[in-house]
Specification:
By secondary structure, the protein is an alpha/beta fold. The protein has a single domain, classed as 2-Layer Sandwich (Nucleotidyltransferase, domain 5). Helices cover about 45% and strands about 25% of the residues.
Length: about 150
């Protein structure tokens, strides 16, 4: 099953997708923000095209652990997306996803020129990869016992 991840921003929406084994997250695209309803329809269409079975949306929080302004926008986007698709949607902590994505691209040696501009789909990759690793750590190990 594939999972789609969203980094919801004011201007752009970063989208990442997992491989079928839910091991690796890859950037898919960045959508320009138009309106909540149109944005949700575009994400729902991407999910259908890619045979996604779950959508995770990054949500940011303040120091008290409450959704901040951007986090509340992400939650409203999630609500609109629920109107556009029957897929399960989870809100997950996106703490520092953009900064982590930027640092990873620097570490990989991506030139400053190629790093210029948006980090949205790469932030979505960070959100998704964190989610995938968390889920893997929550599952009990399976034992292959041969009789």
């Amino acid at each position: 099953m594939r999972i789609l991840a969203i980094d919801h921003g004011e201007k752009r929406i970063g989208v990442a997708i997992s491989d079928l084994t839910q091991t690796i997250a890859s950037p898919l695209k960045a959508l320009q923000h138009i309106s909540r309803q149109i944005d949700a329809a575009q994400v729902a269409e991407l999910a259908a095209q890619n045979e996604v079975e779950l959508i995770v949306i990054g949500q940011s929080y303040d120091e008290e652990g409450q959704p901040n302004l951007a986090g509340r926008r992400a939650a409203r986007f999630a609500e609109e997306l629920k109107n556009q698709t029957n897929l399960p949607i989870k809100l997950v902590d996106e703490a520092f996803s953009t900064q982590i994505a930027r640092a990873a691209r620097i570490e990989l040696g991506v030139s400053k020129k190629k790093r210029a501009g948006h980090q949205d789909e790469f932030a979505a990759v960070v959100i998704l990869q964190n989610y995938l690793e968390t889920q893997r750590n929550l599952k009990p190990p399976t034992l292959n016992l041969k009789p």
